[in-house]
């Protein structure tokens, strides 16, 4: 065992931890876990814990079922809540094959491979997310619609204390897990909230986002409400975006900063933007993985449906936030299509590889757009060369199936499962008869 693993074992003994939850994520982005007692931790570090990978979405085929999870000691934290009165901790895990090779279908491994590609070019990838979610009452209205906990709007200090209390408890639990929060506030929709996490490297941030979902769901249970990361839970109100601010660093130097260029965005940053725009349609099935995702993208409310970029333009797919010359280290771009239901490991991986392709292949960045793209006519957008994102999961799947970038990023097994999983979702969705159809045609 290495020094960090020995430190974890000491922490478990000193804090009288009764169970350690080993967390990992399936290809669809669902958090999985297995609990082990302290006596099994050393063996988990050295040999791993075997399990049936074929029983977990997309991890292995039936004839290759045996898989091994190995905990990452750097992710050890004591959970801020007890389970059945016992103190517990958690660690994220990497998935391996029985011969101790990284599993190609492990979402965490997918992101690691993209990070390695960036490292070979001299870059580290940093991410700062804005996470949106809704809070609903347990009861639905007479029409079966979810009922938000309040009628607040953007930055409202709502009169009912539940939203503030919810965010305060969630932030407290996140910080106990070692996850620093930049700020939180009420979002534009009734009962909609946002928590922004402080910037971190992309692998740490993907782990942090999975932890945030677990924390929000736990706080919802304790406060008697329901939390939803569904991309578009309400027809007439904004969806749940996962806007991510991104930058590449070369050592301690922000590779996106150049005070002499337009928007103070370096050539590297501009090429990264060009890569994202170039590949945005084919990666949409990963960044927006559900049929419901496209109802958010095409509903307006500042969700981007068109492929363009601009400075502080919130209708654009990619924007360059304002920062001062004294804050060159904070130079970044913001990708606005991602929604809160995405698998963060896979999403970060395809976005990073799309941007790196722009740098490696010297893509030319198109003209920036500083007007409200949603307000333009189809003809105006056509003249300006502004394309559009897929309008349905079916269209996104078709584009992803033909994408070399997506196939290479995910690897054969994860790519094959992901497409089959999404095709099944689309098929099942097509079979539904909705209230809208009955109202219109019955």
Topology:
Layout (H helix, E strand, L loop, with lengths): L2 H12 L4 E7 L5 E6 L4 H6 L2 E4 L13 E6 L5 E2 L9 E9 L10 H14 L3 E17 L5 E3 L13 H15 L4 E6 L5 E6 L2 E2 H22 L2 E3 L13 E9 L2 E2 L12 H13 L4 H4 L5 H5 L8 E2 L1 E3 L6 E3 L12 E3 L8 H17 L17 H6 L3 E2 L4 H9 L2 H7 L1 H19 L4 H7 L1
Parallel strand pairs: 1-6, 16-17
Antiparallel strand pairs: 1-2, 3-4, 4-6, 5-6, 7-8, 7-10, 7-11, 7-12, 7-13, 9-10, 13-14, 13-18, 15-19, 17-18
Helix pairs in contact: 3-9, 4-5, 6-9, 9-12, 11-13, 12-13
Question: What descriptive keywords fit this protein?
Answer:
442 residues, alpha+beta, Ubiquitin-like (UB roll), 6-stranded mixed sheet, 14 helices, 19 strands
CATH topology of the largest domain, what is it called? Creatine Kinase, Chain A, domain 2
Estimate the global geometry from the Cα principal axes: globular
Q: What is the level 1 CATH name of the largest domain?
A: Alpha Beta
Number of helices: 14
First-residue to last-residue Cα separation: 67 Å
Sheet of most strands? 11 strands, mixed
Radius of gyration: 22 Å
Oligomer: single chain
Total beta-strand segments:
19
- Into which percentage range does the β-strand content fall? 15-25%
Count of spatially separate domains: 2
Structural category: alpha+beta
Average pLDDT figure: 91
The CATH homologous superfamily name of the largest domain equals: Glutamine synthetase/guanido kinase, catalytic domain
| Helix proportion range | 25-40%
CATH 2nd-level architecture of the largest domain: 2-Layer Sandwich
């Amino acid at each position: 065992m290495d020094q960090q693993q020995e430190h974890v074992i000491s922490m478990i003994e000193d804090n009288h931890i009764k169970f350690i939850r080993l967390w990992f994520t399936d290809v669809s982005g669902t958090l999985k876990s297995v609990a082990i007692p302290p006596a099994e931790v050393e063996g988990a570090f050295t040999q791993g814990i075997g399990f049936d990978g074929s029983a977990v979405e997309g991890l292995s085929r039936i004839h290759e079922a045996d898989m091994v999870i190995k905990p990452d000691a750097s992710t050890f934290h004591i959970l801020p809540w007890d389970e059945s009165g016992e103190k517990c901790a958690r660690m994220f895990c990497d998935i391996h094959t029985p011969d101790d090779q990284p599993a190609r279908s492990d979402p965490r491994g997918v992101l690691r491979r993209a990070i390695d590609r960036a490292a070979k070019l001299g870059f580290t990838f940093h991410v700062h997310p804005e996470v949106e979610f809704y809070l609903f009452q347990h009861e639905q209205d007479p029409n079966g619609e979810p009922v938000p906990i309040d009628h607040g709007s953007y930055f409202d200090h709502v009169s009912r204390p539940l939203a503030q209390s919810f965010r305060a408890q969630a932030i407290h639990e996140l910080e106990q897990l070692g996850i620093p929060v930049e700020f939180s506030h009420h979002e534009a929709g009734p009962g909609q909230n946002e928590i922004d996490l402080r910037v971190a490297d992309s692998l740490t941030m993907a782990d942090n986002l999975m932890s945030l979902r677990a924390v929000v769901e736990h706080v919802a249970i304790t406060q008697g409400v329901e939390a939803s990361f569904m991309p578009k839970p309400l027809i007439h109100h904004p969806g749940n975006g996962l806007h991510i601010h991104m930058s590449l660093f070369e050592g301690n130097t922000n590779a996106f900063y150049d005070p002499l260029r337009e928007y103070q965005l370096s050539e590297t940053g501009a090429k990264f933007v060009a890569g994202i725009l170039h590949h945005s349609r084919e990666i949409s099935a990963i960044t927006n993985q559900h049929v419901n995702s496209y109802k958010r993208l095409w509903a307006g409310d500042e969700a981007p449906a068109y492929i363009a970029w601009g400075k502080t333009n919130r209708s654009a797919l990619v924007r360059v936030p304002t920062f001062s010359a004294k804050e060159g280290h904070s130079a970044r771009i913001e990708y606005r299509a991602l929604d809160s239901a995405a698998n963060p490991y896979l999403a970060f991986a395809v976005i990073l590889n799309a941007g790196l392709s722009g740098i490696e292949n010297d893509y030319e960045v198109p003209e920036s757009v500083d007007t409200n793209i949603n307000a333009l006519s189809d003809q105006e957008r056509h003249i300006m060369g502004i394309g559009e994102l897929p309008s349905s999961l079916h269209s996104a799947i078709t584009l992803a199936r033909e994408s070399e970038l997506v196939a290479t990023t995910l690897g054969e097994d994860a790519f094959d499962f992901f497409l089959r999983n999404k095709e099944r979702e689309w098929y099942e969705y097509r079979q539904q008869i909705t209230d809208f159809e009955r109202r219109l045609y019955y």
